[in-house]
Amino acid sequence: MKTTRNTTAKTAVTEILKESKTALSHSEIHKLTKDLCDRVTIYRILDRLVNDDIVHKIVDLDGTVKYAKCNHASRVHIHNHAHFSCENCHEITCLESVKPSYIIPHNYKVNDINFTLSGLCPNCLNSNI
Q1: Is the pLDDT of residue 73 over 90?
Q2: Confidence (pTM)
């Protein structure tokens, strides 16, 4: 198994995702790093964080990939929660307490779940009242 270094860029990306209350796209993360590293390096860091189960990918309603920090306590991680995509502000939020359920034929094997609800988030809902 290859060991990884904790570079300044990796630490910065991890900290950005840890502090964010919503999922962020690659370009949003790149802007927040203030040109600490190039786009390719950020892609590599994000791929490593996904492979290490530190971050998970979410595809929004427009097909944009966003990233959010995993909030699990154990190293055995199954990404099994819903996401909420706001149709107004376009933020994606992990809904850790909402567990998607499904029934699948016995001859299929599920490796990942991408369950996204859409509508208005509490901030946008309250501002429209």
Answers
A1: no
A2: 0.75
